[in-house]
Amino acid sequence: MSNAVLSHAVVIYTGRGISPFPVRSIERLAEHFVSLQAAELAPVVAGLDEEFYEVEPASGESLNAAADRAAAVFTSHHPELTAEAIDALRWCYTYDWK
Q1: pLDDT tens readout for residues 30-53
Q2: What gap in Å lies between CA 50 and CA 33, rounded to an integer?
Q3: For residue 19, which of 25, 51, 86, 88 sits 20 to 30 Å off, Cα-Cα?
Q4: How many helices and strands (H and E) does the chain possess?
């Protein structure tokens, strides 16, 4: 799978640009990609989503600062992903840690 496809799949999976709040959906991947490709993408995208949360907010740290730090760490591990994909995961992170 290409980096562009993976990045687009992250955005689709999170619901960024589709929903006013994060709604992760494997089913939405199947709607946007052929079934074999969606089946291949689903575990990878879900794993990336989980990995983003390995950086937890520190005591006294603002949510935006924590999200920026998590995004920076994640980007250093996954430079192949687009800024749009990182932003979608950051969006989920800030929503979930409210």
Answers
A1: 999 988 889 999 999 999 999 999
A2: 21
A3: 51
A4: 5, 0
